[in-house]
Every structure is written in C-alpha cells, then in structure tokens.
Amino acid sequence: MTKINRLNFLFFILISIIILMGFYLRYHRYSQIPFPGESLDEYSFSWLGLSLIEQGIPIATSGLPSYKHLYKYINVDQYYHSGAIPNPIPIDQPWFDHPPLLGLITGGYSFIKGVRNFSDASVIYIRKPMLIIGTLNIILLFIFITLIYNKYAALIASLIYSTDPLIVISSRMVQAENLIITFFLLSLISFFLYIKKNNNNFLWLAITFSGLATLTKVSGWSVPIALILLSNFFSTKKLENFLKILGGNLAMFSLFIFYGFSYNIHLFLSVWMTNSGRYFREGLLSFYNLFTTQNITRDFSSGWILAGWIAVFIIAFQVKQKSRNLWIILPLLSYLFIFLLFGSENYGWYKFPFYPFLIGGLGLIFYDLIEEGDLLLSIFILVLPFSIMTNRFFPANEISNKMVFYRLGLLGLAAIIFSSFYYKNKLIWRIIILLLISSVIIINIYTNSIINISTWYNKNLLQSI
Amino acid sequence: MNIEKKIKNLGWGINVYFLTLLLLILAGIYFQYRKKHPINNFNNLFKTPSAFSQFYSNPCQTNIAGEPDIPDGKSYIKVIIYCPDGSTTYNTLRLDGLSNKPTVGNALQKVAEINNFKIVSNLGGKIIQIGNISNQKNSGWNIYLDQKPAFLFSKLNPKSNISIKYDKN
C-alpha cells in the first residue's frame, strides 16, 4: 500500500468512527431523553402519518383556534403519569398545521412495526427514523464541507456535530427541522456540483431536495431562497436559475395546497391565516436570544453553538478573500430570514437548522487556525465549549477550594500562548491545538454519557449558564 | 423532431424531479382512496390502553395526578378509588375528554385505561372486579356519585365526585 493510500485508509477509518460514534450517542437513551411528552409535536407528526396511512385523513393535535377540537385522553408513553397536567389532548381533523412528509416517515415506520392506534405511537418507535436521519446529517455535513473547503475541515466539523450534546439530543426529536437539515444539505451538495460541473442534472436534483424541504415544513422555503442567493453569486445564469428554482419549488409546494383543498378549503385557509398571525413571543430580542440561549425542550447550554456564531462572523468578514465562505453564510442567512420572519415561540427546535452551518463554520475556522498554528485564537474559541461543559461538573460553589489548580492552569496556558509568539515551529502548536480540540470532544462524549432521566431535570447540569 | 431531441437531452436530473412529483401525487391518490376505504375506523385510533402498558393488579397503584385546565371552573370530575388494603387513588378528569353524555362507567373506564387496570362489570351496572380484586360474599365494590349510591350508567354532571369503595355489601 502506498503512503497516500495508507493515509486515505486511515482517514476513512477516522470518519467511519465519527459516524458510528454519532449514531451510538444518538441511540443511547434515545427513548428517554428528551423526556417523552415534553413536546407533543413528536406524537402529533407521527399521528398525522398514521392517520393518513390508515384513514386517508390527516389527524393530529394542534392548539390553533381555527379547529373545532375533539378532546381525547391518549396515554401514549404513560403521558399522564409523567408529570403532565391531566388535560385531554385536542384532536383535529383534518389537520393542516404542517405538510405531512415527516409524519409519513415516522408514522409510516410505526405502522410497519405494527402500531395501529395513537397510544401505541411510542417514542421507542417514532424516534428511530430520526436516529437514521441524524446520522445521515453527519455524513452530509462531512460531504458538504469537503466539497466547499477540504476533508480536514469536514472531519473537524463532523466530529463536533456528531458529539455536541445539544445536537445529539436535538437530533433524536421527531421535529420537522431535523428533516429540513437533511434536505438542506442534500440540496446544497447538489447545487455545488451543478456550479462546479455546469451540469443541469444536479440543478434539478437540488430543486427536488429543496421542494421536499418545503413539503416538510413551510420554513423549508429557506432552502430554495438559499439556492437563489447562491445562484446569484456563483452562476452566470441568474434569471434562468431563479425561474427554475422558484417554478420547481412552487410546483412541489402546490401539492400541499391541493392536499389541503381536497379536504377542506376553508379550514386550510383559516389555519394558515391563524399561523400568519402567531404571537411573536420573543419580539425584537429574537436575534439576540439566538446567541444567548440554547434550548431543546428546556434550556441546555452549548458553548459550541456560541463558538459557531463567532466562527460565522469571522468567515463572513473573510468573504471577499474567500468566496467559498458564502456557501456557509448564504444558507445561514436565508434560514435566519425565515426564522425572524415567522417568529412565534422560543422553541429550541426552530434553531436546529442553524447548527450544521455554525458547526461547519467552526470546521473551516479550526482548519485555518491549525494550518497557521494560531494557538491564541484557537484557545479563545475553545474556551467557550470547554468552560460551559466543565462548569456542569465544577459549579462555582465547588470550584472555590480548587482555585489554586485553576489559577496554575491558567498561568500555564498563558505561558504556552506567550511561547507561541516566539517559538515559530508550527508543528508543535498544531499538535497542541489538536489535543485541545480532542480534550473538549472527550468532554462532549462524557457529558452525553451522564445525561439520563435524573440529570435531565438537574438545572445546574443542563443550564450551565 | 426538435422537441423529441430536447426531451432526450433533458437528462436524469429532471427525470428525478418529475419522478418525485409523480410519487407525491400517487401518495395523494392513495390518501383519497384510503379515505373511502379506511383500514381502521376513527374510534379505533384512540383505543387505549397502549399495547406497551402492563396491567396492574392493584387499581390504586397510580393516579392521574394534578389538576386539568378548566377555564369555565366547572367541567371536571373526580374519581377516587378506595382499595381494600387501605390505599387510595385520586384522579381528576375533564368532562370534554369523555364521551358526549358521560356516565360513571365512561369515567371509570377512562381512569382504568390511563392507570392500566381492568374493570369487569355486570349488566346491572355494578362492578364485579377491579384489577385483581373481585367482589366477595360479604364485601365488594360499590359506586357512590356525590356520596349517593349509583351505577355505572348513572349520568355525570360537572364537578361530580365518584367514589369507588370496597366495603361491606
């Protein structure tokens, strides 16, 4: 085996380990955390799919006043013995809150496994397809970053994405945003290949995936918007691409409108009018809260997400020198636009589609920092996830008798950083940066391992800040 | 000829797009077909308990804890079961979660479905067995609605209190 083949083989082993580790972390306690019932949306999507398969009518639960609710006690996953208020669940038919694509996947899987009624649609079944989708998203992120940058940046991004506890837990949930991530990445990969190879087949593939994103949730329209923006920067056929992307997506999305009209035109229109008037709970602080609050079904701090935003700001400033950074910035901006436009509650899952681009940005930055042997900026970024995660295990009241170690460690770190300004051998600093990243990844994995039913309710552990 | 050539040159990409559209349309046709020929009827979708549930022999093992949201302040009922071993289960339900004309039997059945125990009754509207606890010669399950003797088919009103006691006949 030649040296290059050996290196490629080693690289292949590494990425395989990352993917398998990502799957295992998502699989571990997947039916326990997030606690079943913390979001009724998970059941709602699956009931939608089940009812479509069994009855041909979309039936699920909604809080919107447009519906004439039928109230039912459905004790799925022992919902009423898990701390839930004993309200009957409002059941609506036909249900039009969201397009049915995700429901058909999770409900369809449950149906194959023998589930026939709503109380049997346990998270044991309905979350399983999300484990596959979550793992697929790691692979797609790797491919995407490899295409726009290189495989080393992609390796770092996939490693963080597969192990960050916030992302691991989020990806288990039956939420449409997790599937939007899949179609978003597939669409961007296809569009990149279209730009590079000037092959229309990839353009239509990208349009297909972006259309499927719109049939997952209406916020999936961020995908065609991203394609249009990228086309403006990277393609000479701006108008032609714009018409194809818009037309192709409208044709697909119109199927949802026909679907709604086929059941009840007035109710369909009423639901969407009500959706458009949803309460904007966060108000003008939505943008600020993106950086300061990380949550899933409850607050859950993640320094990687905050570091990701910093990375994205850095690569946004570098756009003039590195136009490939637009492949991260423009999709992020298109989803940010949709996020701010739609508003509504501060649900954690609305933020899921930001994560691949934030972590992708981190991958790009870390690669550049390792290339340069820039220890100072690496530590500056790494201190965020490191401090937030270790604070879970050493909260302020426990660290006071360990201050001497903390101070010695800080002085040692300062000495190493100071040395890096004078000792110019990049290899040593690269190794140190890699070791620092690895140590934070190990803390990621450890944090995942200790999150169980009892620690999930420990506010000090989850909400480190 | 030009059109034929153009179609041939379309490429696999647009074929994938149209195939996807076709599959989605077929899904829609399936839904319409299933609407007329459902696999399962509407009420069966809400059949409880879940197949994952394990039945308890003691009906006082669990409660439906907490108080439901009741905007009008009235439309709830309480179901309390007093077991022979001295344990008690307290349950509160909203009336709109039961059937249109709720009875004691509807409420008790709903409590049984949620708390995972079985109820056996006779045609006379009396309870024969709850969980593994059956009526005996001198004692058995008795139903009281707002402290008055009642039957399973007795109608409920808002704020009704149902007590099921295992006491002497």
Order of helices and strands of chain A: HHEEEHHHHHHHHHHHHHHHHHHHH
Q: What sort of overall outline of chain A do the alpha carbons produce when their principal axes are compared?
A: globular
Rounded to an integer in angstroms, the radius of gyration calculated over CA atoms of chain B is 26 Å
Q: Please give the share of residues in helix of chain A.
A: 55-70%
Strand order of the largest sheet of chain A: 1-3-2
Task: Look at the structure and give the mean pLDDT of chain A.
Answer: 91
Number of strands of chain A: 3
CATH class of the largest domain in chain B: Mainly Beta
pLDDT below 50 for ≥5 consecutive residues: which ranges of chain B? none
Structural class of chain A: mainly alpha
| Total beta strands of chain B | 8
| Secondary structural class of chain B | alpha+beta
Largest chain interface and its two residue counts? A-B, 55 and 51 residues
The CATH architecture of the largest domain in chain B comes to Beta Complex
What is the averaged pLDDT score of chain B? 88
Q: Unreliable segments of chain A (pLDDT under 50, ≥5 consecutive)? A: none
Describe this structure in words.
The complex is a heterodimer of chains A (465) and B (169). Chain A is mainly alpha-helical and 465 residues long. Helix content of chain A is 68%, strand content 2%. Chain B has 169 residues and is an alpha+beta fold. Chain B has 2 domains: 2-47, no CATH class; 59-168, Ferric Hydroxamate Uptake Protein, Chain A, domain 1, CATH 2.170.130. Chain B is built from 3 helices and 8 strands. The radius of gyration of chain B is 26 Å and the shape is elongated. The termini of chain B are far apart. Classes of the chains: A mainly alpha (465), B alpha+beta (169). Chains A and B meet through α2, α9 and α11 of A and α2, β2 and α3 of B.
